[in-house]
């Protein structure tokens, strides 16, 4: 690989030269652990079966794309998908919508949170979380995360003000938040708890599905999530009034919300006392999702198996601190996150990229990562970035130390082995390697980008062995 951009490397004092016997880092011109692109959804590494494609084609050929046409609810793809979701999650109601972000916003709006209220959310989450709060007319109140990047309940207590009218907990990167403790706290404060379970569909905490702890749970079906129809999402709740209001807001006009209550009276009488926001899902995507639900358990199993394999193989590495779940197995397994305490995590991530594994240092200064609160300009105007970081000093510290590696469900055992070898190789060079100041421009993470080459998982039966 070309390491010209890293030019500083080989002119090292001899004491800092990598010892003989140690593999030379690809960052410094050594052989990379792998030369094929790291599989990710945006290079086409997705979990879609031919039967799923057929289901979408059937829906396309039906020419019935609108969920609220002449058919009864249980004859539509959206209606059936929602029935499947209720069964799977064990929740009373589910509503398919246009995205995870709109699902979160609908939950807040449908719960009747007055516009202008504060909603508490963690300082480490995808930018869609605070954005959804803004979309619902409210203001995010950011809370520190702990070293495992989970919302810190003690900090939430410290920051509490009567202006906070709801808590939005996030199961970020598929790791369960301590939602049991947060639910108790929300009850103590007399406010609802909402779950951004957007990246965690199918994951559980102590046998209970994430997204079913709070008043409502929001999920996404965007290409990078447990179910993938390109763009989309859904909301799950046991609260019939919240559900009915969300249905209306999402775009069930002229009494169509009644179709969602086939067995009884809907708990609201009219619809035009709420605005109509057109956050509906269409029949084509619902057909694709309904088909994907059948193989969801298999996909979840692959995520879990791969994650457990990688985490176990690297558990003994003293240089890294792997993100710990709040309870055994309380994660999806779609990302491998670790901290590199006391070392340069930006250097670590770049070295991994050069070895052929996509990795990002979450709190990098060179990379405007949207998961990092100090990049959320829409909340802070032209406030100085150092002042913004000082609002959540612990979160800032943890994010600066954190490295994030995506784990597609299509990873083979060989891919996992590459990741393990690459992390060991880079960790082994820590301390002996000279961490040259990096000349990369902002917005780039790879020193030597691996050219995207579309990879695509085949049908389940043909997937590489060992997944
Ligand atoms: C992906 C994601 C979202 C946004 O979902 P969309 O369907 O893209 O709107 C929100 N929150 C988290 C934590 C996410 O990972």
UniProtKB/TrEMBL annotation:
Keywords: Aminotransferase, Pyridoxal phosphate, Transferase. PANTHER family: DTDP-4-AMINO-4,6-DIDEOXYGALACTOSE TRANSAMINASE, TRANSAMINASE. This is Aminotransferase class I/II-fold pyridoxal phosphate-dependent enzyme. The keyword Ribonucleoprotein does not apply. One of its GO terms (molecular function) is transaminase activity. It comes from the Bacteria. Residues 1-37, 434-467 are annotated as: Disordered. Its cofactor is pyridoxal 5'-phosphate. Belongs to the DegT/DnrJ/EryC1 family.
């Amino acid at each position: 690989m070309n390491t010209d951009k890293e030019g500083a490397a080989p002119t090292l004092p001899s004491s800092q030269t990598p010892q003989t016997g140690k593999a030379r880092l690809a960052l410094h011109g050594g052989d990379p652990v792998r030369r094929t692109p790291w599989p990710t959804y945006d290079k086409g590494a997705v979990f879609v079966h031919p039967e799923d494609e057929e289901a979408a084609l059937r829906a396309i050929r039906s020419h019935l794309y609108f969920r609220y046409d002449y058919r009864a609810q249980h004859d539509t793809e959206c209606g059936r998908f929602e029935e499947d979701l209720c069964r799977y999650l064990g929740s009373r109601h589910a509503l398919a919508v246009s995205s995870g972000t709109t699902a979160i916003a609908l939950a807040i709006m449908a719960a009747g949170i007055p516009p202008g209220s504060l909603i508490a959310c963690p300082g480490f989450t995808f930018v869609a979380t605070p954005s959804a709060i803004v979309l619902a007319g409210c203001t995010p109140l950011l809370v520190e995360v702990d070293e495992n990047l989970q919302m810190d309940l003690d900090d939430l207590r410290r920051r509490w003000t009567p202006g906070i009218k709801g808590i939005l907990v996030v199961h970020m990167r598929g790791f369960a938040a301590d939602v049991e403790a947060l639910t108790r706290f929300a009850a103590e404060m007399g406010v609802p708890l909402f779950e951004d379970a957007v990246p965690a569909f199918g994951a559980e905490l102590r046998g209970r599905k994430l997204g079913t702890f709070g008043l409502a749970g929001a999920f996404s079906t965007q290409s990078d999530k447990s179910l993938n129809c390109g763009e989309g999402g859904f909301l799950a709740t046991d609260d019939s009034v919240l559900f009915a209001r969300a249905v209306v807001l999402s775009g069930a006009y002229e009494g169509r919300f009644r179709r969602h209550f086939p067995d009884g009276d809907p708990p609201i009488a009219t619809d035009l006392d709420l605005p109509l926001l057109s956050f509906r899902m269409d029949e084509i995507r619902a057909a694709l999702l309904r088909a994907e639900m059948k193989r969801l358990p298999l996909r979840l199993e692959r995520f879990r198996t791969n994650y457990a394999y990688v985490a176990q193989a690297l558990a003994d590495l003293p240089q890294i601190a792997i993100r710990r779940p709040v309870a055994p197995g309380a994660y999806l397994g779609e990302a491998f996150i670790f901290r590199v305490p006391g070392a340069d995590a930006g250097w670590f991530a770049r070295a991994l990229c050069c070895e052929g594994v996509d990795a990002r240092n979450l709190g990098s200064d060179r990379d405007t990562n949207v998961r990092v609160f100090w990049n959320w300009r829409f909340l802070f105007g032209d406030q100085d970035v150092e002042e913004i970081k000082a609002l959540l000093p612990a979160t800032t510290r943890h994010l600066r130390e954190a490295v994030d590696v995506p784990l597609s469900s299509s990873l083979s055992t060989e891919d996992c082995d590459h990741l393990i070898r690459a992390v060991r190789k880079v960790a082994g060079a820590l301390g002996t390697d000279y961490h040259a100041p990096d000349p990369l421009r902002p917005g780039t993470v790879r020193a030597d980008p691996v050219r995207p080459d579309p990879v695509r998982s085949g049908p389940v039966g043909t997937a590489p062995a060992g997944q």
